[in-house]
C-alpha cells in the first residue's frame, strides 16, 4: 500500500505502536538525525534500546536501491537471525502499510551500549583503535555468511537472483546510472557499461555469494560498549545484498586496526584492484 506520508509521524502514534510491539507500558521516543529514513530510538525500562525506522517524507525522492530498504532489512534480519557467533538485532515488527503511524515502519533490537557517533568525542585514540579492531572482527564474521545467489537477500522483493557476480553487479550499477540519467547528470553511461563488460572476468572471480552491507561503517550505525571498547552491533541492515564482501564501504581507506581485526584486505591482486576500482 503506497501513499504520501506526512512530514513527520505523530509522536504519540509511534509511542503507542512501540509500546504494543515491545510489550512495555513505558517507552520513550527520541528522534535521531542524520539518516535517510526517519529513525527513532526507543528506550524501555529494561535498559536496552530499540530502533524504529520509517520512510522519509513524501517530498524526499529516494534512489531506486533505497526504495525497498525497509523490506530488505526485514528480510535480512529474518535470514541471519539466531547466529551464535555474532550479535544481530531481532526483527521485532515490520509493517508495510501506513495504517499505524502514517508510514511503513520497522522495529529492531534490542541493542546494548551507545551509538558510536554519540560517544566518539569522549573516547581516547586507544579506545577508538580497539573499537575499529572489534569492527573488523564483526565484519569478518558477517561476511562469512554464504548465500545461494548473488543479488537481493530475498528474491521475493521483485528483483532476480543471479548465478554470476558480474551480472548482479551490472544490475546494481544500472539502477544507479538510471538514477543519474533521471537527475540529468551528464556522464558517458555507455562507456561505463562497456567498462563493466570488459572486466567481467575479474568480477566473476567471486564465485560464492557472501553477505555484504554496502553502507556499514558510519559512526551513527555502529553500537559500542564503551567500557569493553567493543562493537556490540549495527543499527541498520537495510543495504544488505549477497555479493563480494569487499564492496562494503568499510573497505574504503580502512584503518590499520580495522585491518588487524578483519584480516586479509583487498588490492593484493590485479583482479581485486579491478573490482575495487569498479
From TrEMBL:
Annotated SUPFAM superfamilies: Protein kinase-like (PK-like)
TM helices/strands, residue ranges: none
Superkingdom as given in the UniProt entry: Eukaryota
One Pfam family cited in the UniProt record for this chain: APH
Aminoglycoside phosphotransferase domain location: 33-246
InterPro entries named among the record's database cross-references: AGP_Transferase (IPR051678), Aminoglycoside_PTrfase (IPR002575), Kinase-like_dom_sf (IPR011009)
Protein name from the UniProt record: Aminoglycoside phosphotransferase domain-containing protein
Source organism: Extremus antarcticus
Biological classification of the source: Eukaryota, Fungi, Dikarya, Ascomycota, Pezizomycotina
